[in-house]
Amino acid sequence: MKLNRRLFLRVAGMAGAAGGGLLAGGGPSAQAAQLHRTSQGDVEFNGMLIDTTKCIGCRACEAACNEANKLPTPAASFSSANVFETTRDTTTGAFTVVNRFPNEKKPDEPIFVRKQCMHCDQPACASACLCKAMEKTKEAAVIYHKDRCMGCRYCMIACPFDIPKFEYDSAAPFVWKCDFCNERQQKGELPACSEVCPTGATLFGKKRDLLEIARTRIYKAPDKYVHRIYGEHEAGGTGWLYLMGAPEEKLGLRTNLGTTPYPELTSGFLYGVPLVFVLWPSLLFGLNYLIKDNKVSEERKILRGEQD
Amino acid sequence: MANRTDASTAHAEGAMTVRRVAWETARFVLSELRPRGSILTPFNVITGAIILSGLVLIVIRFAYGLGSVSNLSQNYPWGIWIGFDVITGVAFAGGAYVLTFVVHILKVKKFEPIVRVTVLNGFLAYLFYAGMLLLDLGRPWNVINPVIGNAFGFGSVLFLVAWHFMLYMICEFLEFSPAVAEWLNWPRARRILEGLTTGAVIFGITLSTLHQSGLGALFLLAPSKIHPLWYSANLPVLFFVSSIFAGISMVMIESFFTQKAFKDRIGHELHAAHDSILLGLGKGAVGALFAYAFLKLIDFVHYRQWIYLGTPMGYWYLFELVGFVLLPTALFLVAIRTRNAKLVQFTAFLTAAGVILNRLNVSVIAFKWYETVRYYPSWMEIWVTLAIISMELWVFRWVISRMPVFGGAHQVVEAEAAEDMEVVVWKASVS
Ligand code: SF4
Ligand code: SF4
């Protein structure tokens, strides 16, 4: 029901934005709406399970990502441990970074947490983009079409995880972020980071299976984990899931994102668009017609007289 | 006036071929492009310098990227070029749809003398803010993508706003075009264009409603980033309502300056009616302010916003609300009761400052208020903004001093009856 409504809103928004006409234009297939579902429909979403208790901070994933995406060589080598001194953010040249956080339970075993695009089930970035440069594939990856982007950076405003990064120092800038190794996935390969992870802290699979694995792990070691799976419901659910060794606010993860899928935040507004497009002109024309006879200005009276 | 009569007598001769009309018009326009009066006035020198140096900054911006002139960062992708120039500027341009509604739909004759200048201002504002938007885009040449249907982001509020900007500019141009026709002395064109006005006005009001609120709806996608005192599901409505009093205040502010700067262009009629127009505008503004304050109150209760009041952001919020919403409401009421046009005008400045404050709060100041390193505009961003405003003033002045903008429609030399008939036939055939 909900999904049908969303589909309706989208079509309605389209009709309105294109300049009037209620629900004109062919309705996209119901299949399109199903693709937004998590682990349902004919194609299940892929996902990634990050187990922060398994990550040893080796940064092999960073190096593999760098190579797979042909990114520039960073200033500090991937074996340097100095990078953990500060909390790093992803950049236009580093789509994933590993950060170190103190472990209150076991001070000598710090917790390492990866950061990259979460590949939201219903991505805010894609719903923000006005030229479909950000797109959610039916397998899971949120990919970026360079040739469409106009560099408005609205995706950056919208992304709850602050992931898309913009090239401010380029005359022809792009937006960069992790694309879940979409091309490798299409070829049946694992995402580069998952392939090299020596401890299995970065586990690739169907989102539904990953959720099951995650729950089993919590169930088997209840003292080790926070009893929540970060990403299961955040911002409507994300493709990447986190098993946490400490509460999320201690791991640099945003806590106030809510569970509403972001596209729904604006769908109410877009729903109103076709209504306004039909109601306003009718009301205004009516009002204009009504008042015309009473208060018509002299000049117009003459004009009308000539034309009648 | 001399130029106009030259062209008009030539035109009235009737037997002119199309080519001659075109030739005459081109010559006329060219002669109108030449500056009048002395060039080296303080205003010209200052704004000219700002524009020239601003152009240099714009060249640098396109050669080396946005980072070379702005303080934008990964954390603050939108700065004052969006937050002030676009988000605030468009609100101020709202006067055009409010006044065209009152004059063309409600047929309130009182405001007729200021409709043209307001529409002109609105049109120029959009023209220059749209230009501003292009400066802020990383890949402005791709701006045609959402237009030509390369990839339509139907689910995007920004898509809607972009389209509405474009369509609305056409509407405003149509609304203003009779003045252009009068200036070129094309009575036939003017007739046709006048006939289109009501349609353009109605479509324009509809578009304005949607994109003024759309600007607020843009920020619905940032619930965790905007301070809870400013984030609200009501943002679209708040933006729409505030665009009403923002637009009205801007009309009053503009009239404050034009009354001074263009004394000779403003007819006696408008001059005499000025006070009563101001008071009327004040009444409109106070209604919208009331509605706005009420909406704010609802948000305050609904989102339990009082728990944030004891924080620095809370004080800032109170400053905005009490100083720039409640105070102007009270002042407008006093001014209207005592029929004090001066006070109305003063309050308009206060209200406009409040709108600037509010729009900047939503888009820049309360946006990511939790970050340790905050965005503030670079001097170059401010400079470019000033340059754009100066350019707009130049164009505004040029139009004002050439075309019949103040005091409503001017008499043009009517063409022969045969021409009128053609118009009637043409109109009949299109309808
Ligand atoms: S995390 Fe951000 S960039 Fe990645 S899919 Fe979600 S909204 Fe888009
Ligand atoms: S910056 Fe590019 S990808 Fe991001 S919203 Fe704008 S057009 Fe879309």
Oligomer: heterodimer
The helix fraction of chain B, in percent, is: over 70%
User: For the residues shown, what is the average pLDDT of chain A?
Assistant: 85
Q: Count the DSSP helices of chain A.
A: 10
> Ranges of chain B with pLDDT <50 over ≥5 residues?
413-431
Structural notes for this entry:
The complex is a heterodimer of chains A (308) and B (431). Chain A is of the alpha+beta class and 308 residues long. Chain A contains 10 helices and 10 strands. Chain A has helices at residues 2-17, 30-34, 60-68, 124-128, 154-158, 182-186, 192-196, 207-220, 263-295, 298-307; strands at 46-51, 97-101, 111-115, 134-136, 142-144, 165-166, 175-176, 202-206, 229-230, 240-243. A 4-stranded mixed β-sheet of chain A has the order 8-1-10-9. In chain A, strands 2-3 form a two-stranded antiparallel sheet. In chain A, strands 4-5 form a two-stranded antiparallel sheet. The radius of gyration of chain A is 25 Å and the shape is elongated. The relative contact order of chain A is 0.17. Residues 5-40 of chain A have low confidence and may be disordered. Chain B is mainly alpha-helical and 431 residues long. Chain B is built from 15 helices and no strands. In chain B, α1 runs antiparallel to α2 and α8 runs antiparallel to α9 (187-217). The radius of gyration of chain B is 23 Å and the shape is globular. Chain B starts with a helix and ends with a helix. One iron/sulfur cluster binds at residues 117-120, 123-125, 142, 159, 161, 163-164, 177 of chain A.
